[in-house]
Amino acid sequence: MRILLAGFEPFGGEAVNASREAVRALADWRPEGVALSIAALPVSAARLEGAVHAAIAEHRADAVLLVGQARSRAEMSVERVAINVIDAGIPDNDGAQPIDVPVVPGGPAAYLASAPVKAIAAAARAGGVPASVSNTAGTFLCNAALYLACHLAATEFSGLRVGFIHVPRLPEQVARHPGTPSMALATIIAGLQIAVEALRDTRCDLAVGRVGSTETRPATHTGGCMSLTVPVRDGRRRPTIHDFPCAAEDVDGRPPPAITMFQRGHA
């Protein structure tokens, strides 16, 4: 399985970006059964579409896991949905600040990620990494990258599985911003490793209640079951997620679902 892992360059006056640092650290990692490649994406509304397309095409990815930095996140956030709008709160690295413009003119209002978002979040939590499923990727370029990858899966790269993970800033970044959350680079790296392995091993997502700060409980379902084993790390045994029910809809091999209701004129 060919998996592309992509982070973002620094932005907003920062010298580093936690997503790029973590992705770079995995450049030489060779997980079993995965041909892993990495890329860095520009924080540029004008250049992002071309960069996402080029990275997917160059690496002939079967799945892409995008990673971005979010200053307000205190845990690894596995994004469920991307919306067709850029409403930038700050300028990008080209100095542009698009307001209320579509990511793809004429595209659907939103796409759902086709990566197993609940399985990834649950595996990360079982492996000791704080994580949850998020229902908003924001309206800046992280959301745009997820939307673009999903749109490419739906229109050009059939069968491509797409996911996005927001990570907190690094401790050295928040030293200048007291009271804001951070996560150690080693923890982010471990979380991304778990996410890649869950993406490799998960045929369909978990049919469970919300994966987050509350207990994860199996939901009523009509699908089959799966086993997801969290690998042992640092010589310590990790908990195993066993026989969670799969979601009834198996997204493996299908493009991400488009959401067209409540579509505004520009979407």
> Can you tell me the CATH superfamily?
Peptidase C15, pyroglutamyl peptidase I-like
Our measurement of the CA-to-CA distance between the termini, rounded to an integer number of angstroms, reads 33 Å
Number of structural units classed as domains: 1
Number of helices: 6
Work out the strand percent. Answer: 15-25%
- CATH 2nd-level architecture: 3-Layer(aba) Sandwich
Shape: globular
Helical content class: 10-25%
Question: What is the average per-residue confidence, as pLDDT, rounded to a whole number?
Answer: 84
Overall description:
The chain has 267 residues and is α/β, with parallel strands linked by helices. It has a single domain (2-204, 250-259), classed as Aminopeptidase, CATH 3.40.630.20. The protein is built from 6 helices and 11 strands. The strands form 3 sheets. Strands 2-1-3-8-4-7 form a 6-stranded mixed β-sheet, sandwiched between helices. Strand 1, helix 1 (18-25) and strand 2 form a beta-alpha-beta unit. The chain is globular, with a radius of gyration of 17 Å. The chain starts with a strand and ends in an 8-residue tail after the last strand.
